[in-house]
Design goal:
Layout: E1 2-7, H1 15-26, E2 30-37, H2 39-48, H3 53-62, H4 79-89, E3 91-93, H5 96-108, E4 122-128, E5 133-137, H6 153-161, E6 165-167, E7 170-173, E8 178-183, E9 206-212, H7 225-242, H8 247-250, E10 253-257, H9 270-290
Parallel strand pairs: 1-2, 1-9, 2-4, 3-6, 9-10
Antiparallel strand pairs: 4-5, 4-8, 7-8
Length: 293
């Protein structure tokens, strides 16, 4: 069956999305269009480039995750300098290593820019914090004076994966001003709305894979400043998406529980990677037993 697929953000927990994709693929599903945020943008881009689930698993198991953390080093090797770099560069790590890795793997499939994949086959979410708006790549690049077809797919993925304060924001200059982009999950962590609008007739089934800390939404407990910041950030991530997830849409979403797991565990070992992949498989398998279209 030909479907459209949506993949949520979730940092390193994105291994669960890979398992879900493998299960769908092995059950005869092929993807006409994909969309994703943050970790989900990597999965979506690799699918659009023609990677199979098995090929992706090899890439994801072989990668040295800690090698993606390309920190800038100051002249003075003291911990305080690290926080000065965060202050001036707005992130602990540059993010260039992540972009380079994605670019190398896409190039194996002869994919460099968006012109190298079928039109509208891939859409990636990023957050423009300079202008305070959600951005859909490559569609919205024309608003920045950029030809969408000439824009590197790996750069779009990096923009979507730039976790605030962790990775430096990506700069885009249109000749008049510079805009800063961070993780798409700040404004839309699960862009099911791209393919599943109430006002647009669907051309094919849409299945979303969502990494979730809880299987149901719970009220935030806010008793101190730390919990306030956490609740604010989670609200930014989820409020926009929750508006579009009606009871009708929930039936087309694979919820993969990830409670208690860190999205930024770049020291994750191969055993844990395998467990997350299998978790994605298990919950997708259960979803398919009850899914009807």
């Amino acid at each position: 069956m030909i479907i459209d697929g949506v993949f949520s953000g979730g940092g390193i927990k994105g291994y669960g999305l890979l398992g879900g994709f493998q299960e769908l693929e092995e059950n005869g599903f092929t993807f006409h269009r994909t969309a994703g945020t943050s970790a989900g943008s990597i999965i979506a881009a690799f699918i659009a480039a023609g990677y199979t689930g098995e090929e992706m698993e090899k890439l994801f198991l072989d990668i040295n995750l800690s090698g993606l953390l390309d920190r800038r080093y100051g002249l003075i090797p003291i911990p305080f300098v690290k926080w000065l770099l965060v202050y001036w560069k707005l992130g602990l790590y540059k993010g260039e290593a992540l972009e380079k890795w994605v670019a190398e793997k896409l190039a194996i499939r002869n994919v460099v820019t968006f012109k190298d994949i079928p039109p509208q086959s891939l859409r990636i979410i990023a957050s423009d914090i300079t202008n305070g708006k959600l951005v859909v790549l490559p569609d919205d690049l024309k608003n920045y004076g950029v030809d969408p077809l000439t824009f590197p797919v790996a750069k779009a993925v990096r923009m979507s994966c730039s976790i605030p304060y962790f990775f430096e924001p990506v700069k885009l200059n249109n000749g008049k001003r510079t805009s800063l982009f961070v993780d798409g999950g700040v404004l839309s962590n699960f862009p099911m709305w791209l393919f599943n609008s109430e006002h647009v007739r669907k051309e094919r089934p849409v299945i979303g894979l969502r990494l979730s800390t809880d299987e149901i939404w719970k009220p935030h407990e806010v008793d101190n400043a730390v919990e306030l910041f956490s609740a604010l950030f989670k609200t930014m991530k989820d409020a926009h998406d929750s508006r579009y997830i009606s009871k009708k849409h929930v039936n087309n979403i694979v919820f993969i529980p990830m409670k208690g797991l860190s999205a930024m565990d770049f020291n994750m070992n191969d055993e844990m990677k395998g467990e997350l992949i299998e978790r994605g498989r298990v919950y997708t398998r259960e979803f398919l037993k009850r899914w009807t279209y």
